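Supplementary Methods. Inverse-folding protocol.

Structures were first reduced to a discrete structure-token string of length 182. This string, shown here, constituted the complete conditioning input.
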């Protein structure tokens, strides 16, 4: 364990270029990750709109299709089966997309009381610039890792939602082609 005098001497030194670089780099990395989060959430919003339009279009067209093939029970059953499959995949996609949009808990800076307490424990002769660099690098890195973890989860959910959307579109396409052939 370091003595109080050794800690004061260590803190009194000016921050090195490396320490300044690490603090600035941590801040920049966090800003980029925050932009990534914003972009992912915007994309999930667009996915929600598109998936909702698919469901609305399906149920707007369904009565007309059923009326058109009114006498053919086989085609009506086929339309109901495809409509059910499309609905299931669309609703699953909506659920996964909504989950991706969820605001997950992440690490943030310590509250101001903890920061004041940490600063009051430092001697008056210390170099606050060095302390600031070290503090910023440490806590911004913690925040970055937390945000990155959440964003990676959102990306996985968004990929799953896209896969469900592609399946929905494929089944819709097959249904339309079959109806055109009949």
């Amino acid at each position: 364990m370091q003595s109080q005098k050794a800690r004061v001497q260590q803190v009194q030194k000016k921050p090195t270029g490396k320490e300044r670089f690490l603090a600035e780099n941590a801040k920049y990395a966090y800003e980029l990750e925050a932009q990534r989060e914003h972009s992912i959430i915007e994309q999930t919003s667009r996915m929600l709109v598109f998936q909702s339009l698919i469901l609305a279009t399906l149920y707007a067209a369904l009565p007309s299709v059923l009326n058109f093939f009114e006498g053919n029970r086989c085609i009506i059953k086929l339309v109901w089966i495809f409509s059910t499959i499309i609905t299931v995949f669309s609703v699953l996609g909506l659920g996964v997309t909504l989950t991706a949009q969820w605001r997950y808990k992440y690490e943030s800076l310590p509250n101001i009381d903890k920061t004041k307490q940490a600063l009051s424990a430092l001697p008056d002769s210390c170099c606050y610039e060095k302390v600031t660099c070290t503090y910023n690098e440490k806590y911004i890195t913690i925040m970055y890792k937390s945000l990155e973890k959440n964003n990676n989860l959102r990306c996985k959910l968004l990929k799953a939602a896209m896969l469900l959307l592609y399946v929905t579109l494929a089944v819709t396409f097959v249904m339309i082609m079959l109806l055109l052939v009949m």
